[in-house]
Amino acid sequence: MDPNNDFNINTPVDHNERAYTVAKTICSMVAFVTNRRNNGDQLANSLTFLSSGVTDRVNIFLNYIGLTSSRKTAHHALNHLSRQAENRISSKLAKSPAKNLAPFLCVDNLDFKQRIHTKSMGHASQMFHGTWGYIHHPSPELIASVPVSDLTIESYYHAMSKASTFDVHSKMLLPTPKEEVHWEMVLKSQITEALLGHLASPTESFVSIPTKPPIIDQLSNERPDITMLKLMIASDNSAQGAGEVFESISHQSTLPMTKFSSRLQIVDGDLGTCTNVTSLRTQRVPSDHKEDSLSNIATLLGGAHTMWNVAQAIYSKHFGDSSDSRDSGAWRFLDSLGIPSHKMLEKKDFTLMIKNIEKIHKATLVYCLMVVMGNESASLTEELTPMSSSRIQDVVEETYSRFFSAQAKLDATLQPSPKLSNLILRLADFATVVEGDAAMKAGNIGRVMNVWKRWAVLAQGIKKLTQYSIQLPRMILLLNEVLPPGLGHILKHSLFVAPSGRQKHFVAKDQFLESQNYWLKHFFNNTGRGTNINRLKNTYSLNVPLLQELVHGLLADSGKKTVYQSHKNRINLRSLNNCLRMCRGKDVCYTASKLDEHVPKKVEDFYDVGIQKMKKLFVTKGKPLNKLRPPPMKIWSTTIDEELEKENDDSDVSVDGDVEPDVTDDELQSNQEDENEDDDDEVQSHQESENDDDTDHENESSD
């Protein structure tokens, strides 16, 4: 075989580069064996192998042949890197994106168990409840795009102080006519995507067939400036714990508490974090010390946690009765798609839940399209049916009119069986989840805000979302109505980040933190040193980005390029055909009534229930709808100090209030004469003292 003839220039590995890398590695191994101080490559390899889970036994052999440093040296290197990371955290926290504006924080609770196999007194397994997060510096271009006056803490205090007189109206949470038109385009784009993906292909392009809704407010896909914080053994699951978390963050910044509290601090967190911070701030009012008042902290709900919890509540309402084989709820669609559905998914498996909702929604849309086209009895094939663009548009319009319009919803309620009504309501509710997930990945904050407004209304009608029915509208009103426009723009454009710097690969900031939590647990549980909480806190939590980069860099060190792939949530043809057979057998679209047909339980229109509830609260005396407004903030220090200073100017009491002024001999003799006169007229003065508190206290002291 002639190597020159068989050489392919398109091979993924550059052989010249490979030969150079091998030669360089051999030279470094020889140099390390000769002199252990020449250990640059070996130290990098030891950290890479440590983070990759290489056992200590294998590492000893690799160290023996000069390929890596010892495991002890690797841990010493991590400790040194941890000290550098602490200095970097301090400098990042001290750096302000704008005057009196602190870098943004994202925190989440993290539970770890330190497991002890051989237990004894004072030496047993214990659970640690901690909090971890990161620092996010918004891009300078984003900061420069808004007026500087909108980003000051004074403007924030001024806006929040007006919240007490802010009246909430239903129109602030309901979609505007323009947003309703956009939502119709969202639904039609979902229908079109299902049609072009499984049923038809356009033969020409005379008529525009959009498969994506219009962009409203697109975020920049610039790589975010993120620095991980040190793990804090303080849980944010309570008001006391939330206070300990902020105290720990201030210690990591090395800033004086006065300086730390004089900047506006934005914190992204889950529902519990936002609720506990608000509760703690309420408990500390009134406070004349800004270090304790927490008045400079503003919390925002994490986008991922909001979607997960709202989607789970919607999913549970449409899940159906899995114990009844005649039921045609969401569980029946999962079962026909070959997905286990004997019970609701666990709360922690949110990603799989969102994928299942998307599959149910798409399979339902495909069957509805086939009903409209009149070929619901046919089976799908790999080959799509050719269809003109005008015909595709007509099918989409008819499907929307038949299953998504207000008239279709009204007509379905008049049917003797609620089967069609339940299907239409599930399509409408699941469409919000599918659109919310797609808008977040696309980084389109305008579409996300439209979905959040629908969820805020829908949460009013679902009892399971009691906390979100208050906190989500509060955040929407805070961003759109209360805060200065410039600050609101900055916050909305900082809710999502693109870690890889690519379009359509945005994630919510709390979801990115969940990903870092996974890497932290992976590194900590696969290094062979046991579960020591102090090592986790002081070493690994500070070096997660570095270790993650070392693991990802192994592919580049091998001479190959990293290829990023988007995970598509697809339904294979066999599963979809089986689901369509179920739809025909159960007649989920209720095309014809039958005798002795099973009548399922009616599902409420939660969006309509939410609207009616808001209308009732709006017309009720006392304006109970105002509970949805952001909590007003009273800034006590500025107003009370000014009043006290004016009163103290004419007072003979010192400013501290604890030191009595000096009394001269003449004043002392005069006071004694006054006391004697008061003793003689005690009865008369007692009656007058009931109307004068100061005279009453003076008589009591003289007695």
List keywords for this structure.
703 residues, alpha/beta, two-stranded parallel sheet, 29 helices, 56% helix, disordered C terminus, DUF6589 domain-containing protein
Q: What is Rg?
A: 33 Å
Question: Structural class of the helix and strand makeup?
Answer: alpha/beta
Query: How many β-strands, per DSSP?
Result: 9
- Poorly predicted runs are 1-11, 637-671, 673-703
Which outline best applies? globular
Terminal CA distance reads: 120 Å
Q: Helicity, in percent?
A: 55-70%
The largest beta-sheet arranges its strands as: 4-2-1-5-6
Largest sheet: 5 strands, mixed
Number of helix segments?
29
State mean pLDDT (0 to 100 scale): 83
Give the percentage of residues in beta strands.
Answer: 5-15%
Region (Disordered): 644-703
Biased composition (Acidic residues): 644-682
Protein name: DUF6589 domain-containing protein
Organism: Puccinia graminis f. sp. tritici (strain CRL 75-36-700-3 / race SCCL)
Task: Describe the overall structure.
- The chain is an alpha/beta fold and 703 residues long.
- Among the domains are: 74 residues, no CATH class; 293 residues, no CATH class; 42 residues, no CATH class.
- Helices cover 56% and strands 7% of the residues.
- The strands form three sheets. Strands 4-2-1-5-6 form a five-stranded mixed sheet, sandwiched between helices.
- Helix 8 crosses helix 15 and helix 15 crosses helix 18.
- The chain is globular and about 85 Å long.
- It starts with a helix and ends with a helix.
